[in-house]
Design a protein that fits this description.
This protein is about 35% helix and about 25% strand. The chain is of the alpha+beta class. The protein has two domains: about 280 residues, 3-Layer(aba) Sandwich (Aminopeptidase), CATH 3.40.630; about 140 residues, Alpha-Beta Plaits, CATH 3.30.70.360. It is globular. Bound molecules: zinc ion. The site of zinc ion has 5 residues, from loops.
């Protein structure tokens, strides 16, 4: 069966309205409150005759699943995965209020527009369109909108893993992890990002102790001086520079699109990566100092200091090995390291039927210059699927500027209404081809 004829202008309008309403539901995590978002999505699906199921990992921490059944000839399901929680927003620093869902000059504003209520709505529209047009399916299409991704998924994917493991039995997953770019290093382009792999998080709490006293007579080692030295060593650590095959491909494609020079020389590449934080994150294990706590008065030496580190590891490195090396770098046994959260990175092979379909859809639409493989520097809910060998890709088909991307976990998160339309078209066609 060929593609149904769809009025994409109308779909864009509808998707923008739904996304605006979803952005107005404040699901800041903590505390989350994904229940309202799940109810909102469930109402839309049920209204069109699609059965949904909601489950609470804790009061208010609701995830939602809906399934369009296929006759199964093509194998296991495709999962359209999203999370409905968002990170907090410093509302005084935004140009438009973060939970306004306001549209101005063709741009829709709100926390979650990119990460990742926008994609959740593309997935919702895809399921609605398959149903509206009675597209016959060869495999199930599962829409899964989960809670608590931003706080590591204890009330989301970890809960599902324990209580609803059958939802992890799939052939393919599409989720967050990579955006397309309409600009790279100040040059215009149209490249759709795809992430078959992501870095593994290691979140740490560092603690030091020392003798308290008067600020006028410090001893050689205080809790704060110890911590300052440890943090300086951790942040200054030049971790190993490693170019993984996906990153090699990223560089080749970016060079082919004329965005960066062709670089054969490893030293030059290293230099370029040092200047571009995104490239650096794809070629090294990284360490960010994310909080520091010590002291309460300018003339009092405190007895304790505490800091947190957000470390991210490239595939191929284990948390255990990294921690041992970090301890050597800090070189002070009096600094204690406590692991808050850690997960080893698990990649998906780049080549697959789904990857080929995505590539073909973009080519047929003439939608840009193809796919830009990358390692997602963050971590996503793909992990539980990848651990089970499910081919999982980060693929959000929006074409963004570098400035747009600063909105992810930053200020002024927004998406153009044209991108919402583009994303609906691309995602629907990908899903149609792999499932219909
Ligand atoms: Zn996200």
């Amino acid at each position: 069966m060929g593609a149904p004829s769809i009025d994409w202008q109308e779909i864009q309008k509808e998707a923008v309205e739904i996304l605006a309403a979803l952005l107005r539901i404040d699901t800041t995590n903590p505390p989350g409150g994904e229940e309202a978002a799940a109810a909102f999505l469930s109402d839309i699906l049920e209204r069109e005759g699609i059965k949904t199921e909601r489950f609470d990992a804790a009061p208010g921490r609701t995830s939602l699943v809906a399934r369009l059944s296929g006759e199964g000839g093509a194998g296991k399901p495709l999962v359209l995965l999203s999370h409905t929680d968002v990170v907090p927003a410093e509302k005084d620093r935004w140009r438009e209020p973060p939970f306004s869902g306001v549209v101005k000059d063709g741009v829709l504003w709100g926390r979650g527009a990119l990460d990742m209520k926008g994609m959740a709505v593309l997935e919702l529209m895809t399921v609605l369109l398959l149903k509206r047009h009675n597209v016959p399916l060869r495999r199930d299409v599962v829409l899964l909108a989960v809670a608590d991704e931003e706080e590591a998924g204890h009330f989301g994917m970890h809960w599902i893993e324990k209580n609803r493991p059958e939802l992890l039995d799939a052939a393919f997953v599409l989720n967050e992890g990579a955006f397309g770019l309409c600009e790279f290093m100040s040059q215009p382009t149209k490249l759709f990002g795809i992430a078959p792999a992501e870095k593994g998080p290691v979140w740490l709490r560092l603690r030091t102790q020392g003798t308290p006293g008067h600020g006028s007579v410090p001893s050689a080692q205080t809790a704060t001086s110890r911590m300052a030295r440890a943090l300086d060593r951790a942040a200054g650590w030049q971790t190993e520079f490693r170019v993984l095959p996906e990153v090699r491909m990223f560089l080749e494609r970016a060079a082919a699109a004329g965005l960066i020079p062709v670089i054969q020389d490893e030293e030059l590449l290293r230099g370029m990566a040092e200047m571009n934080p995104f490239l650096r994150a794809m070629t090294r294990d990284t360490i960010s100092i994310t909080s520091m706590k010590a002291g309460y008065k300018v003339n009092v030496i405190p007895s304790e200091a505490e800091a947190t580190l957000d470390c991210r590891l490239l595939p191929g490195r284990t948390a255990e090995a990294f921690l041992a090396d970090l301890q050597k770098q800090i070189a002070d046994p009096e600094v204690t390291l406590e692991t808050i959260y850690a997960a080893d990175p698990v990649p998906t092979p780049l080549e697959s039927e789904l990857y080929d379909v995505i590539q073909a859809v973009l080519k047929d639409r003439g939608a840009g210059e193809g796919l830009l493989p990358q390692i997602c520097p963050g971590f996503t809910d793909c992990r539980q699927y990848r651990e089970r060998g499910v081919q999982s890709y980060g693929f959000i088909p929006f074409l963004l500027t570098m400035d747009d991307l600063t909105g992810v976990h930053g200020h002024n998160e927004r998406v153009s209404t044209d991108n919402v339309g583009l994303g609906c078209e691309v995602l629907f066609e990908v899903v149609r081809r792999i499932c219909a």
